[in-house]
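Anyone else keep sequences and structure tokens together like this?

Example one:
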Amino acid sequence: MTNSILLGILLGAAVCILNIRWLRFFVDYILVNVKSVRNAKALTYITFFFRYIVIIGILYFTVKSHTINLIAFMAGFTIVLFSAVAVWLIQSKKETDLNGRTTSLY
């Protein structure tokens, strides 16, 4: 029981981190390499579905095999997600110019 909860939290956190990294990679790729709006739209839809199919697949196989606790998975996922949003908000608040506009996070 305890192992399934621990594995659920760890897997949820890992999937969330992977999701954020993939999102960052795909957005950077689309902004830099894709020139037409039509191609960017199509690529956005494809990557959106690909990311979530992978997440649903991981979740399905681990829950089906009774390896993890589903509530623990969701807890690990949301903890990392809320932490990433909180860090982003803190960084964007610290990086302001004199005119009140935020600078880039790089």
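And example two:
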Amino acid sequence: MKQEDLIRNIVESMKMDLYVEAKIPEMHVCFLCGRIGYKNLPMKKIGEKWICIDCLRELKETLDSLEEWEQELALQKEFKKDLEKGFNR
């Protein structure tokens, strides 16, 4: 009985190895976070690299707020110029 279980486990292990080897081409690594994407983690190819949905969402949020960020930087530059003008008088 134990020998049958051992043989069954070995066969199942070999089946799993073959399955994984067959699915490796469908798996991709996110170039930002390093997570491996398959069915549960959608991935998108950008050029030659892959990005996971989570990193893509973060990137989108950052890009969506880019205009606000640029406005803040412009205000900082303007305040700096005003301060420099005040000290040069």
